[in-house]
Amino acid sequence: MPVSIIAVMLCAALLHATWNAIVKSGSNKLYESAINCFGGGLSVLFLLPFLPLPAAESLPFLAGSCITHIFYYLSLTVAYRNVDMSYAYTLMRGTAPLLTSLFLLCAGVPLTPGGWLGVFFLCAGVLVLALDHVRQGHFSARGTLAAFCTACVIMTYTLFDGYGARASGSPVSYTVWLYIVNIFPLNLWVLLRERREFVPYFKKRWKIGVFGGLCGFGSYGVALWAMTKAPIAMVAALRETSVVFGMLLAVLFLGERFTLTKLLAVLMVAGSTALMKMQ
Questions:
Q1: pLDDT, tens digit, for every residue of 76-99?
Q2: CB–CB of 149/75 below 8 Å?
Q3: Which of 31, 80, 151, 158 is least enclosed by beta carbons within 10 angstroms?
Q4: Each residue's pLDDT tens digit, 186-208
Q5: Whose CA is closest to 128, among 272, 25, 245?
Q6: pTM higher than 0.70, yes or no?
Q7: What mean pLDDT comes out for the span 142-151?
Q8: Is-contact 72 153, C-beta < 8 A?
Q9: pLDDT cut 90: percent of the chain above it
């Protein structure tokens, strides 16, 4: 793989970790998630005139993904309210590929020996991370459960989007419409329930929230581009370095404590997830 592709994918991983750090940094995680949805959709509007409509066959998948994303942001909000970003983000990003692999295994797609090795080290890394949080007195059952629920949701919308992009006839168009449609459910729900609190919050944080949305779309867009230039498995594996960037951002900007045990766990999760995706 060219060095330029590696560098670009590392930037994409950093962008993904950045928008999560922005959500975590806000005083209201739900509002931050809604603003992030707004920013992500706003960032792709200019592409609409240049893209065809997704094929009708992909619309049920688009709808399913949109509904699933509501639960994604809600569970993400609960996780970030209760546990450190370095903990929740690693669990979410690490266990989602594990759950996807197990789902495919149940569907009759066998794992390779390398895939099983990745599963083993991933479980070990998650266990080390959890034990480190218990030792520090930061463990939260509610936050941990929410992080695992988020991973389940990630697996679900990944399957929706995988099949939806294939059925759309234009994966880029499918992705753009997904970002645009995702503006509405969470923002409308928050506006209807908590308009008085949300509107002032939006006015105060919309710039950084929109930046977070741009980071999210930029990360995904760069990954799509890289997949046209390099093996998909290698690109997907490089994306998992986001958990390392997530830990670094949490330590440097969110004031979370750095420990060698946490570093070891994060590296184990990143490496094992990359190994599974390369099989």
A1: 999 999 999 988 998 888 777 677
A2: yes
A3: 158
A4: 999 999 999 999 999 999 998 98
A5: 272
A6: yes
A7: 91
A8: yes
A9: 35
CB atoms within 10 A of CB 129: 24
Whether pLDDT at 104 is above 70: no
CA-nearest of 152, 114, 117, 145 to 130 is: 145
Query: Which pLDDT does position 132 carry in this prediction?
Result: 76
Q: Using CA atoms, how far apart are residues 93 and 247, in angstroms rounded to an integer?
A: 12
Mean pLDDT on 40-56? 90
Residues in the chain: 279
Q: List, for residues 227-252, the tens digit of each pLDDT value.
A: 667 766 666 667 777 888 888 899 88
| Token pair in block for residue 192 | 């209807």
HEC string of the chain equals CCHHHHHHHHHHHHHHHHHHHHHHHCCCHHHHHHHHHHHHHHCCHHHHHHCCCCCHHHHHHHHHHHHHHHHHHHHHHHHHHHCCHHHHHHHHHHHHHHHHHHHHHHCCCCCCHHHHHHHHHHHHHHHHHHHHHHHHCCCCHHHHHHHHHHHHHHHHHHHHHHHHHHHHCCHHHHHHHHHHHCHHHHHHHHHHHHHHHHHHHHHHHHHHHHHHHHHHHHHHHHHHHHHCCCCHHHHHHHHCCHHHHHHHHHHHHCCCCCCHHHHHHHHHHHHHHHHHHCC
Assess whether pLDDT exceeds 60 at residue 265.
yes
Number of neighbours of residue 193 by Cβ within 10 angstroms: 10
Residues 162 and 175: their CA atoms lie apart, in Å, by 10
3-state secondary structure of 81: helix
Distance CA 120, CA 105 (A): 15
Instruction: Write the CA distances from 131 to 29, 215, 238, 264, integer angstroms.
Output: 26, 32, 26, 12
Q: For residue 71, what pLDDT is reported?
A: 93
